[in-house]
Design a protein that fits this description.
This protein has about 210 residues and is mainly α. Helices cover about 80% and strands about 0% of the residues.
């Protein structure tokens, strides 16, 4: 059991460092927080957490190793992820100035909980860097002798921590003071996020070509 505790600490630390690093997941939760409010951002965080379970599942069953061993399929995943992130970027670049009628303290309208959830899920699920992280984590840190039930616990822990972290991000960026600043400069923040999404997409494409 002590071996599992050490292994779990290694997994938890590696995951914590990865999840707090800025990337597409952080950017999309930030965008949802500033544009659509806390409820949508929390649903988005839930979608990201669920996508973690997807990455963990195929890593547990060895499908991830097959994906990593096939340059064609892995490149297809990279291009799909880059395309989706670029689409998010283009949507953000089209942002128009928002009127003050939103009001501080009132949740913006538009979109659905399901749409917010799917946005989070697809952003994480189609992120090839997330795929590589979980494939490498289970191949290099987790022992093949570790029971699948224990490995599943690791995966559940990472999904919960991921969702919890991004819920905290959602709460932070939907504070009244942040919303006031957003009402004044929201469309510029939106467009800056659009540029960030496009840069992330370009980075994925360049990584595919190299």
């Amino acid at each position: 059991m002590s071996d599992y505790k050490v292994e779990f600490l290694k997994v938890a630390l590696a995951h914590l460092l990865a999840v707090v690093s800025p990337g597409p997941d952080f950017a999309v939760v930030l965008k949802q927080s500033l544009i659509r409010g806390r409820r949508a951002a929390i649903w988005t965080a839930g979608g990201i957490g669920t996508a973690i379970l997807l990455h963990v599942t195929y890593s547990l069953f060895g499908i991830g190793l097959l994906l990593r061993g096939s340059p064609l399929w892995f490149s297809a995943v990279k291009y799909a992820g880059a395309g989706y992130i670029a689409w998010l970027g283009l949507q953000s670049l089209r942002a128009a100035p928002r009127s003050a009628e939103l009001g501080v303290g009132r949740e913006p309208s538009g979109g659905t909980d399901r749409g917010a959830y799917l946005t989070g899920f697809l952003t994480c699920a189609l992120n090839p860097k997330a795929s590589l992280f979980f494939i490498s984590l289970f191949a290099m840190v987790v022992s093949p002798q570790t029971p699948k039930a224990v490995q599943a616990f690791y995966g559940g822990w990472m999904a919960v921590v991921t969702a919890g972290w991004f819920c905290c991000v959602a709460v932070l960026f939907t504070q009244e003071q942040v919303r006031r600043a957003f009402l004044r400069h929201g469309h510029w923040i939106d467009r800056a996020l659009g540029v960030l999404f496009l840069l992330l997409a370009a980075r994925l494409v360049l990584a595919t070509l190299n």
